[in-house]
Design a protein that fits this description.
Layout (H helix, E strand, L loop, with lengths): L8 H8 L20 E6 L14 E5 L141
Parallel strand pairs: 1-2
Length: 202
């Protein structure tokens, strides 16, 4: 197996100008890339742990990439392929992930407050203890996802798919749960005050 590419300064400058495309497995841990624009780039398996990608436009392949602890506040990831990616403790406040594929991704401890996840594919995603305060998950597929201990206060889950979803110990205070099928999810110990399920035994 070839060693991961160690990006030199020239390559980094090319990336910042949006010229780089084939970056599969590239090492960019801790890189300073705010507002970078990557349209159609292939960053599958890339190491972007701790990188600053705030305000970046990332309409690209990121499946299996490491974005642990990365700064992605207000980043545009609409339609991005993040299947199996590691986004643990990533900072994604106000990020746009509408229609993104996050199936099997690890997002434990990530900050997604105010993020747009409408119609996102989150099947089997690890979302333990994530901050989804005020996030928009309308129409998202959360089947098999683990949101144990997550904060979903005032989040919008209208019409979300919740087959086998775990909400054990989660905070859903005043969340919008209209149009869901609650019988398929595990709500044990969850706070459902102010929701359509208020009064449902936890």
């Amino acid at each position: 197996m070839p060693e991961p590419i160690d990006l030199n300064q020239l390559k980094l400058n090319q990336l910042k100008r949006g010229e780089a495309r084939e970056l599969r497995g590239v090492t960019l841990a801790g890189a300073d890339l705010p507002a970078v624009v990557l349209e159609g780039a292939d960053l599958a398996g890339a190491d972007l742990a701790g990188a600053d990608l705030s305000g970046a436009v990332l309409h690209c392949e990121l499946w299996g990439a490491s974005l642990m602890g990365a700064g992605l506040a207000a980043a545009d990831l609409r339609g991005a392929n993040l299947r199996g990616a590691n986004l643990m403790s990533a900072r994604l406040r106000q990020a746009s992930l509408a229609g993104a594929s996050l199936a099997g991704a690890s997002l434990a401890g990530a900050d997604l407050a105010g993020a747009d996840l409408t119609s996102a594919d989150l099947r089997g995603a690890g979302l333990r203890a994530v901050n989804l305060t005020g996030a928009n998950l309308a129409g998202a597929d959360l089947s098999g996802a683990d949101l144990s201990g997550a904060n979903l206060e005032e989040a919008n889950l209208a019409g979300a798919q919740l087959r086998g979803t775990l909400f054990t110990g989660a905070n859903l205070l005043c969340a919008n749960l209209s149009g869901i099928e609650p019988q398929w999810a595990d709500w044990r110990g969850a706070c459902l005050t102010g929701t359509q399920l208020d009064g449902t035994p936890g």
